[in-house]
Amino acid sequence: MPVHYDHVISGRFLERKNRFIAAVEIGGEVQTVHVKNTGRCRELLVPNCPVWCVHAPKEGRKTAYDLVTAEKDGRLINLDAQAPNKLFYEWAAEGSYLPLPLTIRPEFTHGDSRFDFRLEREGKVRLVEVKGVTLEQDGHVSFPDAPTERGVKHLRGLMRAVESGMEAAVVFVVQMEGVKDFSPADQIHPEFGKALREAAERGVQVQAFDCTVTPEELRIRGAVPVLL
Fold first, then answer.
1. Whether pLDDT at 1 is above 80
2. Is the pTM of this model over 0.90?
3. What pLDDT was estimated at residue 28?
4. Span 79-95, mean pLDDT?
5. Smallest Cα–Cα separation from 51: which of 65, 74, 68?
6. Contact 98/79 with Cβ under 8 angstroms?
């Protein structure tokens, strides 16, 4: 099942005022919009790039629009930070990640970490942490786009889960289509890359899947090679 967006309208990105707010020209008028991604996204949100926003006015909201998609070099990239978890849940629930029957429990705490999902099938338990990927260069994608101590902590927790007899996986949902490969962004956060390689050596599955992206929809497409 895809993540679907209603009331989508195109615009032109002007500037990012802070982590949460940007100025976008929509229909000839400058609108203040909510950016649904607190990451840096510096290589994506550049002046005059085409973007797509969801018109979602609601009483009490400071903005009437959510910025969800941007175009970079002709490639559509979904920026909705909440979408990867929603997408993975629906994808796993329909049996596309592991064969059914499958029990899925979101936000499961193990040790000192809370993981996105606890999956159980035929008595085997797998903890899954999902990460959205928007950083791309020449068809190669990587994570993170900013240092993430929380991400390193999750990887340490997944290693401990494997030591306790569980299965564990970190799933990178690449929020764009047709990329060449995925690798950790060592130039941005070397510690994360080191932890990811150690996790893989200790039995944590490292998986990446790209997505079909339109302004109205995001859908998991297929596996992407992981280079560690």
1. no
2. yes
3. 95
4. 96
5. 68
6. no
